[in-house]
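Async update (no meeting this week)

Hi team, since we skipped the sync, here's where things stand on the single-chain job. The sequence we agreed to prioritize is pasted below, unchanged from the tracker. I ran it this morning and attached the output directly underneath so nobody has to dig for it. Comments welcome in thread, and please keep replies under the output.
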Amino acid sequence: MKRNLFITLLIVFNIAIDQISKNIVRTHMVEGAKGRMNIIKDYFQLIWVENKGAFLGMGSDMNPTLRLIFLLVLPTIVLIYVIYYIVKTRELDRLSLIAFCCIIGGGIANVFDRIIYGQVTDFFFIDLGGVFKTGIFNVADLSVTTGMILLLLSGIFTSKKNVKKLKTE
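Output:
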């Protein structure tokens, strides 16, 4: 019961933060380059764009039926499966559980945008001058990316623990 409450709260938190940030952008910014806001010089900016595709606009030029299948139906099926997996798999370590919750929360938030608006609101842009530059993304994308990094770290930590166990046996 406690575990499922933790899962629910973490997923809802990820969705809420994303949707609140997108609502602020939609109500207080001007769409496109004219509404660009420098947060930290040119390194970190807010630029409101509406994305009909997936990550970095991939798939935005697909025909509407394919876009529906690949950007709405399949992600929804995957999200439902991952929710089922984390609820049923009690052996997951806490870091993996948090990682999956971030991935699910971010995924649901972007799927919600596609259902309600037909597109996803993106607004963060980072350009560290040749060293690192992103496309325009949102809090949900950040949640999914953070979840993936945490999942990789969890896998590394779990592998190291298993190696230590084998050496002591």
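Quick observations from my side:
Residues 2-157 form one domain.
Residues 42 and 127 are 7 Å apart (CA to CA).
Reply here if anything looks off.
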